[in-house]
Amino acid sequence: MGKKDREKDQNVAEIIKADRSADSMFRTIIGNHFRLSQMADNKAHIMITICAGIIGLSVKELFDPQLVYAAATIILTSLVSLFFAVYSTMPKLGAQHTSDPTDPKFNVIFFSDFVHMPYEDFERQIEALVRDQRQIHQSLIKDLYSLGKVLAEKKYRHLRYCYQTFLTGLVLSAVVMTISFLAVPKP
Description:
By secondary structure, this protein is mainly alpha-helical. The protein has helices spanning 3-58, 68-89, 111-114, 119-131, 133-183. Helix 2 (68-89) packs antiparallel against helix 5. The model has no long low-confidence stretch (mean pLDDT 85).
């Protein structure tokens, strides 16, 4: 075996090692994004349950003269929190980019991009993707970026609004209840 053959074998081994590392990295990062998405959905579902329960329990207090304003405050802020929690979990398909594979925004592994393609075109695009390691990595990078944008700009942002509104409502309703007890005499 000559020097050139050994160098070629070494280059191939380095490429395989780099591909394995990249595959492992993508698998780990995309798995982490998936878990973060599940955590956000679970938190949103917990807030939906809590807000719905508070609304249900507070409605009867609207008829108590001392608690009417505090109940209205907690119901209103719970409704707003409920809105943010539901919105953070609501699926949204952005405007369809295009099913044109030459468009730089097109990503054959993202369902919203390929869903309007005929099956034969989709199959051809996937087969071409599988043959080109660089294209695979580019598609995974686009997918990873899209996942991160959805997590940051939608799920976690609106979940944060949900928690902020809920906490504000708790504090406000406590203040309003205290003022009501001091200002409105018990019948």
